[in-house]
Design brief:
single chain; alpha+beta; 8 helices; globular; TACO1_YebC-like_2nd/3rd_dom; DNA binding protein; Transcrip_reg_TACO1-like; signal; Transcrip_reg_TACO1-like_dom3
Length: 291
């Protein structure tokens, strides 16, 4: 995703129904998806294909490690397995990824680990870089090298974020006339915190849906299960880090800082171990910070 892309205002929803509070608290999108970056930067060639297979298999390893290997209970895993099927990823690659997530080794027999690295940029923007690696020394060295190039360094930054569950869905194919109000009703029933409708022109990635749903971290799987039971297509389901509104850094009027930040993000994504990057830059993923 390109953080310099034009901003837009999205419909935001809040209501009170049957004593259930549906909150529309302020938040800004901060999670940059690795495959989203690659799709924008590279054409459909052998290198992109290899990156895609790697991204999906790494995601399978990570979610098996954190949420278990049963796709009926792990919605994130079920979503990735469906992506693997659509992209004709060999069964052997999927089985290897799941084995690594269950405690098997990487290419050199080393244990696969899911590690987060926190960093600060001189602009005041904080980073959380999610990785999955079989060599933590290599991963740390590569990340430090890129950060140093842009004047950033490893530092405590988690206080700049709030952890949330995020689900991307498309409406059920057998309900083409569904309206926004119907989706809101389902979100309330599911116990979701917030919902945003994504404009069609910006729903162009493998893991992006018509609606973005936020949940409390402990409710992610339960809410995703509800939407799946209602026949929604689950495009993505995972934890993200949302900037705290009071400390989010607005880079929209500073083109130089914006470009530098984008270059930093791009180079971090070129590291094979890096899966997701979250920044505390306001509107870094095109969703408004304030209502």
């Amino acid at each position: 995703m390109n953080i310099s892309r034009n901003l837009f205002l999205l419909p935001r929803l809040s209501t009170l129904l049957c004593s259930k509070t549906f909150s529309s608290s302020a938040w800004a999108w901060s999670g940059h998806n690795k495959w989203s970056k690659i799709k924008h930067k590279k054409s459909a060639n052998d290198q992109a294909r290899s990156k895609q297979v790697g991204k999906i298999s790494q995601g399978i390893t990570m979610t098996v490690r954190t949420e278990g290997s049963n796709p009926d209970m792990n919605i994130r895993l079920a979503t990735l397995l469906e992506q693997a099927r659509k992209n004709s990823i060999p069964k052997s690659v999927i089985e290897t990824a799941m084995k690594r997530g269950s405690g098997g080794g990487g290419a050199d027999g080393n244990l696969m680990q899911a590690l987060d690295y926190e960093a600060m940029h001189p602009s005041g923007v904080g980073f959380i870089v999610e990785t999955i690696t079989d060599n933590r020394t290599r991963a740390a060295a590569n990340i430090k090298h890129v950060l140093k190039k842009y004047g950033a360094s490893l530092s405590n930054a988690r206080f700049l974020f709030t952890k949330k569950g995020k689900i991307e869905v498309n409406q059920p194919v057998d309900r083409p006339s569904m309206e926004l109000g119907n989706v809101l009703d389902d979100a309330i029933e599911a116990g979701a915190e917030d919902i945003v409708q994504r404009p069609k022109e910006l729903t162009d990635e493998e893991d992006e849906g018509q609606y973005v749903i936020l949940t409390e971290p402990t409710s992610l799987n339960e809410v995703a299960q509800y939407f799946r039971s209602q026949k929604y297509e689950i495009k993505d389901s995972r934890m993200i880090y949302v900037p705290v509104p009071d400390t989010a850094i607005d880079l929209q009027t500073n083109e130089q800082a914006k470009d530098q930040m984008q270059n930093l993000i791009d180079e971090l994504y070129d590291i094979d171990d890096v899966m997701y990057i979250h920044t505390s830059a306001a509107n870094s993923h095109y969703l408004p910070l304030n209502n």
